[in-house]
Amino acid sequence: MSEAAIPVSGEVKFNIQISDELTQNVKPLLHEIKHALENLIENGETSIIDLRSIPLAPGEEDRILNTLGRGEVQAQLDALGLSEVTETRYAGVWVVTHYNDEDNIISRFIEVTTIPVILCSQTEDIMAAYSSLTLDLDESQQTN
Amino acid sequence: MTDRKNNKDKLPAGLDQHEGIHSESGPFEKTLGETLRSQGISRRSFLKFCAATASMMAMSPAMIPKIAHALESARRPSVIWLSFQECTGCTESLTRAHASTIESLIFDSISLDYHHTLQAAAGHAAEEAREAAMEENFGKYLLVVDGSIPLGNPGYSTIAGISNYDMLMETAKGAAAIIAVGTCATYGGIPHADPNPTGAVSVGDIIKDKPIINVPGCPPIPVVITGVLTHFLTFGTIPELDHIGRPKVFYGQSIHDRCYRRPFYDKGLFAETFDDEGARKGWCLYKLGCKGPTTYNACATTKWNNGTSFPIESGHPCLGCSEPDFWDGGGFYKSISMPTENITKTAIYTAAGAAAAGVALGAMNRSKKNSAAAAHSKTTIDDLEK
Question: How does pLDDT run across A39-74, given as a tens digit for each residue?
């Protein structure tokens, strides 16, 4: 049963006040992103921050994502479930979210890089594609 | 029809040396990467799996390429899973997923040669499968055990007429390592609770000559079980363990230290009952018997049900299920976790030096828990209604 299908009587209020900034981890994280961006500019080094490794209260992850906003690029991958890759309004800062087949988030990263690796075609897949295309052409030649 | 496997000569120079794609090896010789590729899983999907794996194992994201490389070249391990005095909750925890998940991916990638709940074979055929797997993979297979072992009377729990003790001793001989899954296998669990009618003991109480990884929890978080398997596959070694045999990567920090309600604790703001203002505002559940300060597990960050929440987030105190003797800890809702000092006063000190005070309170609570266990204070219906 999907979450939307669960019958709810009356108004539901979550018992945490989002404005409380419970863990105080939002601002330090944004500063960490700033330093990572500085490192990318000066040394060309990429950084990845695992949002699941940081204790965040309900609402705090949304606060971080809202602050970063959305930029020019949004991509979706269909790889063992959906993945969303979004460049934030700060160029070079990407949010990569991996979902499973049931659309549950299994991991979420902030990547500070020119382009996240998961978007690039992988060597092994290129090799398999080359083999496959070669065979398809051979087969069609034999048929003709 | 052209055989796609024999297309090696048509690869461009440089690409034909790559391992994996053209392997002619048999199914049991396949690497994990080959197994996944044969299931139609792309390298990109595999990278996604590795990213999620690094996240669940609390590893630096910089480790993702290394995990990918190591896992791709790892051989499928033979796994023998023995279930003794248990409720099957640990197996349920691992296999409840309805869709392709990280857990199912790694689970599908091992060669699970014996698991009497999951396997189709029964009776003599099942036992023959176990014996064959032991013989073929002697010294290399992983032994997973859930459930405690009764020493009081072998008849309390037998499989195919073999006592749990005998089966464990026989199967452990050729194991490369043993993973004790669930609090029953790791510390005796509920069967071991006072007065322990079956004489239940843990795997570690019996086996002394094999590396044992304890993965406690009632049940353990699924990704913690698969995380340990993944670590073994990735590094070929057992992960770093704490003083009671748990992988530090998952059990290195207390629930309290990683709890998002911790700031309320530091401010001295507590729920006093399950329906007071503090409970509604999501304040700390310490006074309601939360065992977070003395419990080491990954619930607060990894969470349950595909990362949805964990008990404290749902408004219930931590029961401490990954700790030894949690069932005899003095009652889930009682003052076992309540310091004798005035809590507000304690909290003021905590605000000034949270870490030190937290350690001190943890020690105090552990001491109280041990005392309660010794006195075996039973939880009554009245306690639950308080």
Answer: 999 999 999 998 877 777 777 888 899 999 999 999
| Residue for token pair 């390592």 | B177
On the question of pLDDT at B22 being above 60, the answer is: no
Cα–Cα distances (Å) from B63 to A50, A96, B58, B96, B301, in that order, read 12, 17, 10, 29, 19
Query: Is the pLDDT assigned to residue B270 strictly greater than 50?
Result: yes
> Which tokens belong to B215?
């993965």
Question: Which residues of chain A make contact with B281, given a CB cutoff of 8 A?
Answer: 15-17
Check if A124 contacts B (Cβ < 8 Å).
Answer: yes
Q: How far is A13 from chain B (nearest CA, A)?
A: 10
CA distance linking residue A63 with residue A61, whole number of Å: 5
- Domain annotation for chain B: domains and CATH numbers: 4-251 (3.40.50.700), 255-328 (4.10.480.10)
pLDDT of B15: 39
Q: What are the residues whose beta carbons fall under 8 Å from the beta carbon of A99, sequence distance 6 or more?
A: A81, A82, A83, A84, A105, A106
Q: Would you say B223 and B189 are in contact if contact means Cβ atoms under 8 Å apart?
A: no
Give the chain A residue nearest B47 (alpha carbons): A118
Chain segment B56-91, per-residue pLDDT in tens: 776 777 778 778 888 777 777 788 999 999 999 998
Give the three-class secondary structure for A100.
coil
With an 8 Å Cβ cutoff, are A118 and B51 in contact? yes
Residue of B nearest to A98 (CA): B48
Quick one: tokens of A90? Answer: 């700060």
The verdict on a CB contact (< 8 Å) between A118 and B48 is yes
